[in-house]
């Protein structure tokens, strides 16, 4: 059921024990929104825990509260009055779904949200879920602290590609400015999050050799099979390098993380890439989407390229 921001605030005020979760394979928005909301609810006197069913990259230790994020154990039962899922639909929270048997409140900005939670606040115009959480904190009438600001600024900065993507709106900048006034430190965040191990930077050279150009240059992508990934780390932000190629509208990466399981990222400068991701049970935004394909690299590549070319054809 869709609810308003005021109703979202009321739903949070009405309960005491709250578990916050976000999507597996968590990004800056998932982690920043979870921790930002945690700090705000703690300020309201709530008992709050954050559980994410994945490892949290160490670079995010720059965010206050990082060490408090738990990962549910097999068969664990976590008591709560409310489960709050941020930056995600309930189908991508992994084991947290079984571990927390409580009513669900979902706060999200993905237009592909599946609307399966008991209550859903969805704002597809928000650049990041963290932008919504800032507005929610205002609605809750909690003073914004530096801890909240560091977390929420990170969510917005990463989902907008450091304020470069088309989702960057006047409101995005206004919220970011407010977060700076509350003590967010952009240089501390960017220095921590842009750091990479030498081996990962060097693996870029390997991966970039594998760029494939399709559809008269409108589509470009990189496929890394499991053997490639055994030898070379998957470079973070690889898709950004493909996206900037002149003339490319759709960029993709396909990484065979485990034999027979591929993770796909899609970016576009115009075409709606959710049309491709949804065909494989994924989702996302018009210009940034993703999915998993349970096939080996060669088979998944064939299916993906077929789907991309169909969408490109239909648009031209
Ligand atoms: P990324 O390529 O950075 O992993 O994801 C791009 C966008 O697509 C993000 O907003 C992310 O949440 C969404 N996305 C990526 N993979 C999936 C998926 O498997 N399912 C859904 N529903 N969304 C996804
Ligand atoms: Mn996310
Ligand atoms: Mn997001």
From TrEMBL:
Domain DDH: 17-156
Annotated InterPro entries: DDH_dom, DHH_sf, DHHA1_dom, Oligoribo/pAp-PDE_c-di-AMP_PDE
GO molecular function (one): nucleic acid binding
DHHA1 domain sequence ranges: 238-313
Pfam families (alphabetical): DHH, DHHA1
Taxonomy, superkingdom: Bacteria
Protein name: Phosphoesterase RecJ domain-containing protein
Lineage: Bacteria, Bacillati, Bacillota, Negativicutes, Selenomonadales
